[in-house]
Amino acid sequence: MSLALSIKNLKKTYKGGTVALKGVDLEIKEGGFYALLGPNGAGKTTIIGVVTGLVNKTEGKIEVFGVDIDKNHDKAKTFMGVVPQEININIFEKCINIMIDQAGYYGIPRNISINRAEELLKMLGLYDKKDQPSQNLSGGMKRRLMIARALMHQPKLLILDEPTAGVDVELRRGMWDFLKKINAEGTTILLTTHYLEEAEQLCERAAIINKGEIVAEGAMEELVSKHPSGKLEEVFLELTK
C-alpha cells in the first residue's frame, strides 16, 4: 500500500530559538485513519502547519502521495483538505456560498460545485441551513461546515486539527459516523484531538508526540497494551508526564 504522507527528519526552530520539532519521522498509509496525540505545545499543530504550507520547516522532507511539497507544493496541496483548529469561516456569508467559493479555488465549475456542496451539506446535517449566514450556526455546526468545506475538492487526505473541540456529545458522535464513512470509502484521515476516547474509537494507528519528539507510535491495540489498564489515557499520561 502506498503512503499518503511521509515525513522524514522534520525539524522546526522558531525565531527566538524555540525548538518545536526535533526530527520527527511519520508515515501514514493510504486509506488509513491516524491519530496524532500530545499535550498542548507538543508540536502537533506545527507538523500540520508545515505539511499544509502555513509554517516553514527548518529541516526535513515531506511527501504527500509521493509528491515532495518543496518541489511541487501546488500539486501536493490538491491532495489535501484541511480543517484547522480555529474557526475561520466568513460569518456573513451563506453556508452554500462558502462551499462554492472554496470549490472555485480549485477550478471546479459552478454547476458541479453546487451539486457537490448540497450533497455534503446533506451528509453533515446542514442542508436546511444552506441559505443562512454561517453566524447563525452553533459552534458544532460551524465545525461541521468546515469539514464539508475541506471536502469540496474531494481530497485524498483529510487533516483534522481538533475538529470536535467544544462540540456536544451527540454532534460529536454524528461527526464520528461521518468520518468513519468517508474513511471506509477511501479518504485517508489524520486527526489531532485531546479526546483520547475519540482517537480510540476512530483510529487504527496513532503517534504520541511530546516536546517535539515522537515518544510512541503504532497500531492502537499495540499502544493500549503498553499499560496494565489497557487504556490509552494511562499510556498517554505515562509518556507525556
**Into which percentage range does the β-strand content fall?**
25-35%
Instruction: Please tell me what the overall shape is.
Output: globular
Count of separate DSSP helical elements:
9
Strand order of the largest sheet: 6-7-8-3-9-10
Instruction: Kindly report how far apart the N and C termini lie.
Output: 35 Å
Rg computed from alpha carbons, rounded to a whole number of angstroms? 18 Å
How many E strands?
A: 10
Biggest sheet statistics = 6 strands, mixed
Share in helix = 25-40%
Which structural class do the helices and strands define? Answer: alpha/beta
Order of SSEs: EEEHEEHEHHHEHEHEEHH
Low-pLDDT residue intervals, each spanning 5 or more residues: none
Mean pLDDT comes to 94
List the helices and strands and how they pair.
Layout: E1 3-13, E2 19-29, E3 33-37, H1 44-51, E4 59-64, E5 67-68, H2 73-78, E6 80-83, H3 95-105, H4 110-123, H5 139-150, E7 157-161, H6 169-184, E8 188-192, H7 196-202, E9 205-210, E10 213-219, H8 220-224, H9 232-240
Parallel strand pairs: 3-8, 3-9, 6-7, 7-8
Antiparallel strand pairs: 1-2, 1-4, 4-5, 9-10
Helix pairs in contact: 3-4, 3-5
